[in-house]
Amino acid sequence: MSLYALCSILFSIGLYCLLVKKNLVKKIIGLGIAEYAVNLFFILLGYRQNGEAPIVDTYAAAGQYFVDPLPQALILTSIVIGLGVTAVMVAISVRIYEKYRTFDINEIRRLKG
Amino acid sequence: MVPLFVIIPLAAAFLIPLVAKVRQDSARWIANTGAWLLLCFSIASFWWVKNTAIVYSVGGWKPPFGICMVLDSFSALMLLVINLVGCIVLLYSLDYIKKYTSPHLYYTLFSLLLAGLNGLAISGDLFNLYVFLEISSIASYALIAFGTEAEELEASFKYLVLGSVADVLILFGIGVLYGRVSTLNMADLARSLQGISLADPVLYATALFLVGFGLKTALVPFHAWLPDAHPAAPAPMSAMLSGVVIKVVGAYALTRVIFNVIGITPLVSTVLIVLGVISMAAGVLLAIGQWDFKRLLAYHSISQIGYVIFGIGLGTPLGVAGGLFHLFNHSLFKSLLFLNSGAVEYATGTRDLRKVAGLSRSMPVTSATSLIASLSIAGIPPLCGFWSKLIIIIAAFQANHIAGAVVCILTALVTLASFLKVQQYAFLRVVDNVSREAREAPLFMRAAMIGLALLCIATGLFFWPFMESVIKPAARVILDGVRYAGMVLGG
Amino acid sequence: MKQEKGMTLIVKRITKVTVSLIFLFGVYIVLHGHLTPGGGFAGGVIIALSFIHLVLAFGKEAALKRITDTVISVSESVGGLLFWGIALLGLVFAGTYFLNFLPKGEPFTLFSSGTIVLCNIAIFLKVGAGLFAIFLALALFRITDDKQEGRNGL
Fold first, then answer.
1. CATH number, domain with residue A86
2. C147 vs chain B: nearest CA distance in angstroms?
3. Do A57 and C137 touch (CB under 8 A)?
C-alpha cells in the first residue's frame, strides 16, 4: 500500500508541474516526472522478495526464483513512447518560441472563444 | 488475415519517406492504395466475423502467454468507420495538401495514424491497446501542427499537454489492474476480475480509465483541448480527428475496457449517463455563439459525443445500439461538415461565417452536401441522424431516464437552430460584393464530399438492414460483457 | 582570426579516442540483446550518442562529413522496413505473423534465438538514425527574424 502512495505522490508532483507551471519547458519536465513515476510504479509491481534478476545465464540458473520480467519489457516500450512524445513536445516548443518569442503560456493566447 | 490491418498502413508509412526522395508524387499513390486495400479488407471482415470472434495469436504464442489480436463484431464496426472515413479523407487530401510544403510528410503521418487506429481496434491485449493509442496520438499531434503557423502550434501544444495527461493516467490504470491480477490479456483479465469486481484497486483503475479515456474522447469536463485543436488542423485532418480519432481512441477504448474487461456496474453506468447529458447540453450551448465555422463544428462534436456516451451508458440493448449507430452516423456527417468547411476555406480564404455569403450560387456541390450534412446532424428524417437520435430517445424513455431524454430532444432542437444559422450565413443569404469570386472546389475534393453525402443518404434510407447486420452484432458483443473472455479463450 | 569550431583541444583529443569505443559498446549491446539486458533500443541510443558526441566536440560539419543527411534518412526507413519485413516473412514462411522462424541454435550462444538478433539490428538502425536526426533537427534550427530556416523533410 505504501508503494501505491509514494508513487502517487511522485505522479502528482509531475502532474502539478505539467498543469500549473507557466513556462513551456517546465511543462515538458513535469510530463517527464509523471511518466517516470508511472514507469517506476509498474516496475516495482514486479518485485518478488528473494528474487533474482530475470536473466538465464547457464542451464543451472533456469530453475531459480526470478522477479517478474513482464513489467520490465513493458516499461522499455513505455520509455521509448515517452521519448517520442518528449521529442514532439520539444520540437513544437522550439517553433512556438520562434513564432511568439516567449515561453510563457499567458502570452501564447491567440486562440479564444 | 487479421494483422493485415496493421501491416498495410505500416508498410505505406515506412515506404513513403524512402520513395519520396526519388519521385515526389509517388507518396500520394502509395498512401491511397494502402487506404483502399484496407477499406476492402474491413468490408470483407464483416463476413469473417459472423457471430464469432477471430483470435490471431501474434508470433505463435497462444493467449494468455502471448499478445493476441481479436476481431469481433464491435472491432469490425470500428474498422469500417476508420477505413471508410480514412479513404475518403485521403481522396480529399489529394487536392487540399497541395497548399502545404512537403506533402509526403503528411502522407507518412496519415498512414501512421491509420496504422495506430486500426491496431487499436483489433488489439486483444491491454498494453498493446495503449501502444497503438500512443502511436495514433503522436501522429495526430504532429498532423495538427502541420502547417506550423502560430495558432496551429499553440493548438497542438494544448492538445499535447492534455493528451499526455490522459496517456499517463491510462498507463497508471493499467498498472493498477496488472498489480492485482498479473495478466494483461483482456480476456484473461475479464476472467480473473470476475470474482473481485468492486474491490478497491479495480474501482481506482476504473476511475483512472474514465478520466483518461474521457480526456481522449472530449467529454465535458475534459473537453478543453477540442475547440482549439480541431479548427487549427488542416481540414482533412480535422475531419479525421473529429470523425474518427475521438471515437476510436476515446469511446471505443472506454467501452471495450469498461464493458468487456471490468464489467459494467450501476455506478459506472450512472457516471457515463451524467457525463453524456452534461456533454450534450454544454456542447450545444457553447456552439450557439460561435462565428468561426470550424470552431462551431468542434463544439457540436462535443455534444454529439455526449449522445454516444449517453446511449452506451444506458446499458440496455436499444440504448447501446442507438449509441453505436450514432457513432457511425456522426463520423459520416461530421467529417462531411469539416470537409465542407475546408472547401469553403480553400475557395474564400476565411472561416468566419460573417465574412462569406451566397456560396450556394458559386459553390453548388459544397452547399448541397453541406445542406445534407446539416439536416443529418439536426435529425431530420429520413437522413441518418434522425434514426439514431430517435433510437437513443426511445431507449432513454424505456430506461426511465426522462430527464436525459428531454435533454436529448432539446439538444436536437438547438442543433437544428445552430445549423440553420450556418446555412443561412454561409450559403443562402445573398449580400452584394461578398464571395462573388469563390470557385468550386477541385475534382477530388468534390468527389470526396459527394461520396460522404451519398453515404449519409443511403444510411438513412436503408437504416434497418444496416442496423441488423452491422450495429446489432456489435451491441451484442458489448452487452455480453465479460462473456467476451469465453469467446476469446475458448470456453 | 580563425574561429575554432567546437570545444577545446583536450575535449577533441579525448573524443577521438572515445567515439569508437562508444560505438563498439553500442554494437555489443545490440548483438547480445537476447543474452544480456539491452537490445535494439538501448544499443541504438548509445550509437546515436557516439555521433552526438562527435557533433558536440567538433561541430556539426565534422559529423555530417562522416554520415550525411541522406544516409541518416535512408537508414531510418530501411530499419523500419527491415523490421516490418522480418515480421512479414514470419507470416509468409511459417504461417503466423511475427513467428520466430529461423533455426534456434544452442541456447546462450550468440546466434541462438532466430529472428531476435535481426530484429535487434533493425531496431538499432531505426532508433539510432532517428535519435540522431532529432538531435540534428533541433540543434540546427536557427531562429532568424526575417527568414525562417529549419530542417524539415528529414
1. 1.10.287.3510
2. 14
3. no
